[in-house]
């Protein structure tokens, strides 16, 4: 019992530091090992459920955040189900380990976990939110494999390492696990080689970023023309100040202003004039209300003042944005020879949508966004991984979140918190991304391979007797 309690405590503490809004990358490599090793070693029913207990305790800290969007009973059910998924993956790994040679069994645990993450991202409205791979956002060598496989191989590698260590702990043998060890080494090698690449794909683009959280509660949903004009003029002044500092592209946040049919012409005229006077391209996120259905849009104004395009958000936040018009087309534009695209906030939770931009070989992605302070780092930086996956520089401007620029390798080039001052603005010369990657072209091949591998491993395991070396 003491061994079980210690295993659960160590794993739960490590899960706490690497899941939800915590991002201690090395904790993610440690977290599964103690309880997985214990589940491998013992036949006692109680101890075999230590993975469930550790994962539930370690991730319970996200309860308060999830409760913002769902009732208590729904959140509790979700947390129990997620712990159950982790337990199922550990149980499948135990089943294979007792019937297959170590070199084969070691792959079961990471393959099962990746299948869960892939299905969750494909079938739910939350996309890749809380994916285990986001724990590695600060660990650049491992992050680079996303340019080949997407996010899936990041989680797979971390879970594979845990599986290796648990089996070594259990069997006291390492040589049979050489193929798996070589896979982990190969992931690091790919990352180190890619990080040696030149971070730019051409001349830099000088980007201006600005947001003001003050007065946000009224401005984004106002149907008062005077209030709308006041907010529009305030942002117009900020655009001119950024342009005076050399900004070629100015990005404003998501839904910073409510726009109605009655005041649309005046609002558009203000930003059109600002873009023309600043000789800069401007991307503004509007909440188009007073119509049915309402629209969450990003409008791109050219340096000559005309509207280049209007992008409708594709992935809506369930609840607050239920009933909004769902956009169906990606948006592309060019500035000074650079290929650029626009997405809005939650769109970046879904790799498949961003891959449509990667296939068009864009170099910059502008992201007007709106986060909730507590999730500023996690949700904000999720967009960073889309840049690594597809080879573009990310320009992220969020209310109640982060304003940042990250290159196509996940490096944070510039960053500010929107809530650090009444209004936050800065200018940065951002390098262009190299463009299309292997993942952009081929897609989720790695997740599909994991599905095939797990089916094969379990099928063979079912035909073999239990190995006598196990207790």
Helices, strands, pairings?
Blueprint: H1 2-18, H2 25-30, H3 33-41, H4 45-48, H5 50-59, H6 63-66, H7 72-97, H8 102-105, H9 108-123, H10 140-143, H11 146-149, H12 152-171, H13 178-195, E1 205-211, H14 216-219, H15 225-244, E2 249-251, E3 257-259, H16 264-278, E4 281-288, E5 295-301, E6 307-312, E7 331-335, E8 338-342, H17 351-358, E9 364-370, H18 376-390, E10 393-399, E11 402-406, E12 412-417, E13 424-430, H19 438-442, H20 445-462
Helix pairs in contact: 1-3, 1-5, 3-12, 5-7, 7-9, 9-12, 9-20, 12-13, 15-16
Can you describe what's shown?
- It contains 20 helices and 13 strands.
- With 471 residues, it is an alpha/beta fold.
- Strands 1, 2, 3, 4, 5, 6 and 13 form a 7-stranded mixed β-sheet that branches. Strands 7-8-9-10-11-12 form a 6-stranded mixed β-sheet, with helices on one face.
- α16 links the parallel β3 and β4 (281-288).
- α7 packs antiparallel against α9 (108-123).
- The mean pLDDT is 93.
